[in-house]
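Weekly modeling sync, notes
Attendees: S.R. (lead), two postdocs, one rotation student

Agenda item 3: backlog of single-chain predictions. S.R. asked that every request posted to the team notebook include the full sequence so nobody has to chase files. The rotation student volunteered to paste the first one in as an example of the format we agreed on. Action items at the bottom.

Example entry:
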Amino acid sequence: MPSPMLRLYPQPVATVPLKGLYLDAPLVPNEPAERLFVYGNFVMSLDGRIAIAQPPNAHQTVPSTTANPRDWRLFQELAGHADVLISSGRYLRDLAAGQAQDSLPIGSAGAFADIRRWRRRNGLAAQPDVVFLSEDLDFPLPKALLQEGRTISIFTANTPPREQIAELAAQGVSVERFVGNGRIDGKDIVARLTALGYRRAYCVAGPQVLHTLASAGCLDTLFLTTVHRLLGGSDFSTIMQGALLDAPLDYRLRWLYYDAASPAGAGQMFARYDCR
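Predicted structure, as returned to the notebook:
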């Protein structure tokens, strides 16, 4: 990925390489020792689409018109910092149906070998652990995921059948039930992950999980890639979906980069926003 990018903020304006941009930059301001740092990431179009439904299956997916290798590289670099990924049962169902965007990071492709080496140098496991948030346990766990050496947990606010819990336990997967009306409070998620010893959690789930975390005041940082394209469509998702927040959450721009190289003919912006 030889094409450089332009740093627009903070000043001074400078030309910088894409590779290593997120991996080499400090993730956590002042490195808090006793609390979990939670961050998320999305790629969207100018009209706010992160996923759209397209024929013939009308299933919402990340559109090929916004997904691109340069954004995907930085998505993987953010995973390089993580102790644990926060995902969802929907991802597992989409994966089983062949509709998931890709496997969970960090990818096995040779292009990401340097990220895995970076993790080893910094005392991290080869792959981040994974927590899936789900209302039920009606999904398969792919063998590849179970064989990657990750610790896998499922958090649910319902009461799954004992046989399902036992089947997952036999595969080395823990199931934890939280008190709630079918949904887990973001603060409970953060408290439990903190108790498990995690310090950096990367949300790679969709807009409902982001709402769960943000509405509880638990989303520290949002990384947002904006591809300079309008897509349209009436069946789509944006970065957060859920009830109106009691009060708006303010995020301040920490950095902004302009990438003219991708997607071809459009370009994109890479931004980081930190919660006030």
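Discussion: group reviewed the output briefly. The two ends are 33 Å apart (CA to CA).
Action items: rotation student to repeat for the remaining queue; S.R. to check formatting next week.
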